[in-house]
Amino acid sequence: MKIFLNRLKQLKLFHRMNDKPAHLVQGEKAEQKALQYLQDQGLAVVGQNFRCKQGEIDLIMRDNNFLVFVEVRYRKNSQYGNALETVTPKKQSRIIAATQHYLVKNNLSRQSVRFDVVAMTGNNQLNWVKNAFQVNF
């Protein structure tokens, strides 16, 4: 059976349901690269890909007394703007709402937080912006 399925894949007659679109695969790679970079800078991982109806948080890290909520953005090139520019006020509000949900859910309402962005381009250039945006809870 396995040989038969492999042959169908080779002939492109088999629809692979588990294949992810290339942009999602690239996004996952960017998140892993950002995670490794932040760990190399001394941050500790708390969580990844926290999702709720308010939005998603790519990475949650600890940096001394701060719980750091990290948005990872990747752009193949800067033809239509750089990755950092894609963290719009609307995107920020979604991240903030998801953060509020996370803090309440985990009984961390008094926790000091920071919002960072790690922006990457296809040429492997990484830009870590600490305190990329702020909010008062």
Poorly predicted tracts of residues: 13-17
Q: What is the helix fraction of residues, given as a range?
A: 25-40%
The SS-based structural class is: alpha+beta
Please indicate the count of domains: 1
Can you tell me the CATH class?
Alpha Beta
Q: Would you give the CATH topology? A: Trna Endonuclease, Chain: A, domain 1
Q: On the 0-100 scale, what is the average pLDDT?
A: 86
What pattern of helices and strands is seen along the backbone?
Answer: HHEEEHEE
Largest sheet: 5 strands, mixed
The spatial strand order of the largest sheet comes to: 1-2-3-4-5
Describe the structure.
- The protein has a single domain (25-133), classed as Trna Endonuclease, Chain: A, domain 1, CATH 3.40.1350.
- Helix content is 33%, strand content 34%.
- The protein contains three helices and five strands, in the order H-H-E-E-E-H-E-E.
- Strands 1-2-3-4-5 form a five-stranded mixed sheet.
How is this structure best summarized?
With 137 residues, the chain is of the alpha+beta class. It has helices at residues 2-10, 22-40, 89-105, and strands at residues 44-52, 55-63, 66-75, 112-121, 126-133.
Which labels suit this protein?
alpha+beta; five-stranded mixed sheet; 34% strand; Trna Endonuclease, Chain: A, domain 1; 137 residues; 33% helix; single chain
